[in-house]
Design goal:
single chain, mainly beta, Lipocalin, 2 helices, disordered N terminus
Length: about 190
């Protein structure tokens, strides 16, 4: 009889528990698409991930950490010398200083359901150039794919080049502080 009670209690407890599981981000098929704007137009490109994982309880996202390889900043709207020059400038100390800061990180601190399976409100700490800021964004994660779109203000990370927030009289040389990011993950 004790054996039957033991089996029954194990079955009941296992029904209430779902396995906590980390899923590794496939860095070969995941990326960040960025878009920055200035008075006279926009530029866009990609950045690759160095590593990442998402934590799940069953099918429910519960956490995550992503490491962005800032040395992979790529410009996709230009070709030739213009592309090479802009990529070099974005990697320089005027912008992301990738020689000293080769990675950026996003660490989830809170994940809440938005009431629909696979849709979440995420609070995270993002670190760029050794400066950490809290961000909030909506995301989806299901069936091995994740997606999020949000804006960052580069001045929060001491990226001041061409910023009208720090430099007066830039005119049409002004580069806007906010830039758009679209994160696409496979796991």
């Amino acid at each position: 009889m004790k054996f039957l009670l033991f089996i029954a209690s194990m079955l009941i407890s296992s029904l209430g528990m779902q396995a906590q599981m980390d899923k590794v981000v496939n860095v070969a098929t995941s990326n960040v698409v960025w878009k920055g704007a200035k008075v006279t137009g926009t530029h866009d490109g990609n950045v690759k991930f160095k590593s990442g994982s998402l934590a799940f309880n069953g099918d429910v996202l519960t956490g995550g950490e992503l490491v962005v390889d800032m040395t992979t900043i790529e410009v996709t709207d230009l070709q030739g010398k213009g592309k090479t020059n802009l990529e070099g400038h974005l990697k320089s100390d005027d912008f992301f200083g990738v020689a000293k800061n080769p990675t950026a990180t996003i660490k989830f601190t809170k994940v809440s359901s938005r009431g629909v399976a696979g849709e979440y409100k995420i609070t995270a700490n993002i670190t760029i150039k050794n400066t950490t800021k809290e961000i909030k964004f909506n995301a989806t994660a299901k069936d091995g794919k994740g997606m999020a779109t949000f804006k960052l203000d580069r001045s929060d990370f001491d990226i001041r080049y061409g910023s009208g927030s720090f430099i007066d009289n830039l005119g049409d040389k002004t580069i806007y502080d906010e830039f758009d990011l679209t994160v696409a993950l496979t796991y």
